[in-house]
Design a protein that fits this description.
A hairpin with a 2-residue loop joins β3 and β4. The protein is an alpha+beta fold. It has a single domain, classed as Roll (Pnp Oxidase, Chain A), CATH 2.30.110.10. The protein has seven helices and nine strands; from the N terminus they run αββββαβββαααββαα. It has a five-stranded antiparallel sheet with strand order 2-1-5-6-9. The chain has a four-stranded antiparallel sheet with strand order 3-4-8-7, sandwiched between helices.
Amino acid sequence: MYLPKHFAHPDQAVALQIMREHGFAMLVCADDAGNPFATHLPVMVSERPTGAGMQLVIEGHFARPNPHWRYLEAGREALVVFQGPNAYMSPKVYPDIARVPTWNYVAVHAYGHAHFLEGEMKKDALLKGLIAIHEAEYAAQWRGLDHEFQEKMLAGIMAFEIPVARLETKIKLNQHRKEAHAEMKARYAAGSPDERALAVWMEKIGL
């Protein structure tokens, strides 16, 4: 994505926070004709130790009829987009009138190649991880379902993991317009849920 230096945030821990808080992502890669193909899906993000530090890994699954997994299986790079809070910003936040509106937002783009998880145990572990995030009490119900039914459900998905090879984190809060920060923060703090979330992000990055 277009990433001016003053909006880039290099801290992987910050990227991980955004990815986990906004885990309904958009996964994009090229289809067989070279056109972009996107799937919206919940994912799970974790850190795994490696010799070079901590490796971010994105896990999720497709319905088997979705052709997206075949495009990834062919070795095409995946882009996973995590969209955080976003909101309009009025030019009224500036002390003068020669200004224009803009849109502020928080987003992470993660790139990598998918590996598919084979076998019931790995698929089951992935599903239990997602259940733990979104509805932990459902785990007991899942475990209690007939094994034949579980097998059928697991056979109907293609589970994957994507080790993140490249990460872009953009926090666009008009960092380069200091004269607007106080008014912008006050307006956002009194606004919609997304606006209030952006006011919190202003605090986090020291604006």
